[in-house]
Specification:
- By secondary structure, the protein is an all-beta fold.
- Helix content is about 0%, strand content about 50%.
- It is built from no helices and 24 strands.
- Strand 1 (about 1-5) and strand 2 form a beta hairpin.
- The protein is globular and about 50 Å long.
- The two termini are about 25 Å apart.
- The relative contact order is 0.09.
- The mean pLDDT is about 85.
């Protein structure tokens, strides 16, 4: 079961497997190395100098893509929680967690600090994080919808998704910017946010679908993964169900382009 995924420019695939740890597949040799790290890797984020940063339980790991060297940095806490998001920003990483909110990791000093926006979050259970073109942060939470933080203006906005779901849940699995719109993926619906206040549901959305992830390819096509009906493509007007054989559960999407 693949739960995180990254493909480099040589089409080498790095992924987190629930049962086989951190793995690398080399298409040139058609060979997979399993259990390079005996960790459940929830998040994979590329960084400069041929590095990957991996989000695991209560820690982040620096992985050298050439030498396969690793170094683990454990967050100083007694709680156990997953690192669910890593956003690089100059010499800092913004770390989101499921259980402890947001941390900053200084890449020069190699130390963690609590984020200044921590007190603004509506929930410490952050499931996804995203930085848009205006350098604002969007944090999708497990029970409280989406939090928007503008670090430059020190402004904070909260958006609840419960009114748009039949079950009234406020779970957000993914956030993605596309043109002047923001896509917000909840359990049951895909929402479009065009500004600070206006929100719309996608018309003719598939029924009885539970969404799990969102991805935009280089052609600008939006792809949505689900945990019960495989893969969907948005063609600009409607969702198209892509045939994925018997594959029903999709947690990560990445196209080799």
């Amino acid at each position: 079961k693949v739960i995180s995924l990254f493909v480099d420019e040589h089409k080498k695939v790095y992924y987190g497997n629930l049962y086989h740890g951190f793995c690398v597949y080399d298409p040139n040799f058609k060979f997979t190395r399993h259990n390079i790290l005996d960790e459940i890797v929830v998040e994979i984020t590329p960084y400069r100098n041929k590095q990957l940063w991996l989000g695991v339980n209560s820690a982040i790991i620096r992985f050298d893509m050439d030498l396969f060297h690793t170094k683990k940095f454990k967050i100083n806490t007694t709680s156990k929680y997953d690192v669910t998001g890593i956003i690089p920003e100059n010499d800092n990483l913004k770390i989101s967690t499921f259980g402890e909110g947001i941390y900053n990791f200084n890449l020069i000093k190699e130390v963690f600090t609590k984020d200044n926006e921590q007190m603004l979050l509506s929930s410490k259970n952050v499931q996804c994080s995203y930085q848009d073109r205006q350098q604002m942060y969007w944090f999708g939470t497990y029970t409280n919808g989406v939090d928007l933080v503008d670090p430059n203006q020190k402004k904070f906005n909260h958006f609840s998704t419960s009114a748009y779901n039949k079950q009234g849940d406020n779970v957000v699995w993914g956030v993605l910017e596309e043109k002047n719109r923001l896509w917000i993926v909840t359990n049951e619906k895909v929402l479009i946010k065009t500004n600070q206040t206006q929100v719309a549901k996608i018309k003719n959305s598939p029924k009885n679908v539970i969404y799990s992830t969102i991805y935009k390819d280089k052609k600008g096509i939006i792809w949505l993964g689900t945990i019960n009906h495989g893969l969907f493509k948005w063609d600009g007007k409607q969702f198209i169900h892509e045939k994925t054989s018997n594959l029903k559960i999709i947690k990560s999407i990445y196209f080799i382009e």
